Amino acid sequence: MNTTLTFSCNRFEDAQAHLSESYCRHRLVPLGGRPIELSHVSASFGTEAFNTLSYGAEIEVKANGFEGFYMFEMPLHGGVDISIGQQQAQSQPGRALLLSPGQRFHSRWKPDTYQWMLQISQKSIQTAFEKRAHRRLDAEIVFDPVIELGTPHGQFLQTAMSDLAHYMGNYDSAQGDMFQQRFDTVVELLISNLPYFRNGSPVPERLYATPRHVHRVVEIMQTRFHEALSVADLAVEVGVSERALYDGFQRYYQKPPYEVLMRIRMDVARSLIRKDDLPLSAVARRVGMPHQGRFSGLYRKTFGVRPLADRRTRHKLKE
212-318 has which fold? Predict the structure, then answer.
């Protein structure tokens, strides 16, 4: 172990300065009137670190995003509501988050939230990925952030984190290599089981090949997104039951088929809105959503801005 840092304070300004120095620029906003009681323990091993963090009070956090590392967060008490770009997520006991580098986030910690947080360098993720995949990583990967710990994979991951935390609490300097072994186990479970995105694709990839029926349905969605596709029809087309198709998407993408289809449609719609001057109704029809009000609502939920406002902003940037 290189260094162990224990920091606590009940002054808001000190907490904000400490976290900005430790991770990235933080802006903290206390909520609910309860005074902050920051408790942070960080045990670092080179560029990696195992942390425990609690604010005590309910608090809002705005941060520019981590640079050079991923952050795996596992709440033991309480929970965090978080906006990552335009994505909304929530963590709690039984549901963890993996935040990727460069993602601005805005979170709200519930009172008495206490988390384990594992800081993983981009180099470690890249090395583990290339070793497992037997190929070079040609683009930075952004993980789908939500990890359900109730799944078989999630349970293995939770056990690995518990082993790491137990080791940190009983650290013996004569067994420094034990941290690396436990750390490598967590990283291996993350990169081998979680969906991730590359090159801005709306459809996540996985290190291992997805089942044929899931892969085929994604291909259909990408080429026929404008059609009135239903899960029942898609299941018949690829020769599986609706349940098998739903379970396949949940297992490999942690999303139901309909949600993946909607994201594909929204990305195509954004491309049309930003590049062309098509009427909004025409864009909605082109992506298979003739109900303009529903289309606009989903667009705003996905990107945080209404379609026409997005177009105006894009045009101003070009001027």
Answer: Arc Repressor Mutant, subunit A (1.10.10)
